Automatic annotation (TrEMBL):
Listed InterPro entries: AAA+_ATPase, ABC_transporter-like_ATP-bd, ABC_transporter-like_CS, ABC_Transporter_VariousFunc, P-loop_NTPase
Molecular function via GO: ATP binding
Keywords in alphabetical order: ATP-binding, Nucleotide-binding, Transport
Organism: Lentilactobacillus raoultii
Record carries keyword RNA-binding: no
Lineage: superkingdom: Bacteria
Recorded coiled-coil stretches: none
Limits of the ABC transporter domain: 2-232
Lineage: Bacteria, Bacillati, Bacillota, Bacilli, Lactobacillales
Entry protein name: ABC transporter ATP-binding protein
Matches recorded under CDD domains: ABC_DR_subfamily_A (cd03230)
Length: 255
């Protein structure tokens, strides 16, 4: 279980998170939704200790993150929002780094790496540099790296961006089966159909504020026949969206 308590993050020009409190249970797929700049990545980066919150606390299985940082980091596999890192390394070099940081026994590492690289169609590319890969292939390298230590907690920041349909399908299956084992899967996405299909619970952020936290089923039951997209746009979207779109269309027409 992960508990965020009164989390705030203030950057020099923005208050990215405003008093965020929520609990993420084990055994569920938990989605963070929100417009660009809403605070999703800031929340996930705080959980994986890439940034330090201005105030508030995070507990993982009852242990305070600030006091047990290293032990908690070892439980987490993280996919950042951009895969453009370590471009000069080969895929295999990158996974080497992860394997040594997480102290994965050699045989286990070989077995998991083989399985994951075959699943994600990367087996023929392990000795090529990450910089030579397409965006989707880079994303696959990062995903394989995050899953290599078989961490209990998956923290995936927009993990499907750039992936091909087969890889999206496979990743969704992996996420579902990880949650079914009672483990934790947290991800952010802008694709509301995916969130509706995959998430047990969601948090919707708007300009750093939590505006909904609860089950997707419950949210859908508030508006019969509506999709998560419709409900989300009513809660987090711009007022008068349709009016603005009509105005744009009219302006185009007049030009
Ligand atoms: N390193 C930083 N320095 C200054 N401001 C930052 C920094 N990182 C994020 N911010 C600001 O914090 C706010 C929240 O950003 P964050 O990346 O958490 O949003 P997000 O919901 O993940 O957005 P997106 O959907 O575009 O990825 C934004 O206003 C952003 O400009």
């Amino acid at each position: 279980m992960i508990e965020f308590s009164h989390l705030r993050k203030v950057y020099p020009s923005t208050e990215a998170l405003r008093d965020l409190s929520l609990t993420i249970p084990n055994g569920k797929i938990f989605g963070f939704l929100g417009h660009n700049g809403a605070g999703k990545s800031t929340t996930l980066k705080s959980l994986v200790s890439i940034i330090e919150p201005t105030s508030g606390s995070i507990k993982v299985d009852g242990y305070d993150l600030a006091e047990h940082r290293l032990a908690i980091k070892k439980k987490i596999g993280y996919v950042p929002d951009s895969p453009d890192m370590f471009l000069e390394l080969t895929a295999n070099d990158y996974w080497d780094l992860i394997a040594s940081a997480y102290e994965i026994p050699k045989q286990l590492r070989t077995q998991r790496q083989d399985n994951l690289s075959r699943l994600f169609d990367m087996a023929d590319h392990v000795d090529e540099t990450i910089g030579s890969f397409s965006h989707g292939m880079r994303q696959k390298v990062i995903i394989i790296g995050a899953l290599l230590p078989d961490p209990d907690i998956w923290v995936l920041d927009e993990p499907m961006t750039g992936l091909d349909p087969q890889a999206i399908y496979d990743l969704k299956s992996l996420m579902r089966s990880h949650a079914e084992k009672g483990k934790t899967v947290i991800f952010s996405t802008h694709v509301l159909a995916t969130a509706q299909e995959l998430c047990d619970e969601v948090a919707i952020l708007r300009k750093g504020l939590l505006i909904y936290n609860g089950s997707v089923k419950q949210l859908l039951s508030t508006m019969p026949n509506a999709t998560l997209e419709t409900i989300y746009l009513k809660m987090a979207g711009r007022q008068g969206d349709n009016q603005m779109i009509h105005q744009l269309e009219e302006d185009e027409h007049d030009a």
